[in-house]
Amino acid sequence: MKLTCLGSGSAGNCYLLHNETECIVIEAGVPFKEVKKALGFNIRKIIGVVVSHEHGDHAKYLQEYIKVGIPVMAPSMRHVTGVLSAISKPFAVRTFPLVHDVPCTGFLIEHSEIGRLLFATDTEYVRYRFKNLNHIMIECNYSQDLLSKSYHDGLQERIKLTHMELGTCKDFIRENKNKELKTICLMHLSDRTSDEGIFHKEIKELVTCPVYVADKGLEYEL
Ligand SMILES: [Zn+2]
Q1: Which CATH number is associated with domain 2-221?
Q2: Average pLDDT score, the chain
């Protein structure tokens, strides 16, 4: 099973979790045609799409999936016609609430090939602990240091209440890491208030597994 990133950040989020015959799309923030292209136009293997919340960079292209009959699971957007509450096997998807300025959910995705993968973005923090995670995909949006240099107080406050700071991300990794952890992917780094090199280094110091930073085009084996 591979993870392919088609976008991460305020310009559009979309990740593909896929093997030869099955794919789950995580977030609908890039045009469907880019997803098709990345899958070699084999869209029959898309089991479903999961979407964390209604903001455009995560949900702008939701209707394109609904229109062609691909199951869409978006627990925070049940008011949208065509949105389902579950996605069928072989993926088992559970959800948990996050802390954002609109209802937002994280996902715990299980599949026999990869074990348990956690996905959480657009959240001030994650209030739960998880056992036996094999893969973690977590927001690492900004550092307090760079934030205070870049924005006025009002905007700083908004970002602090809606996105994850480096230190919070580090706490999450410390509290949820285990011997079976195989990969970590840092997501949704802010253009102005993050530093990819520093963030990668500080997270890598906490674990022995590979740490990736989500950029358009990133692909790795799970
Ligand atoms: Zn958002």
Answers
A1: 3.60.15.10
A2: 95
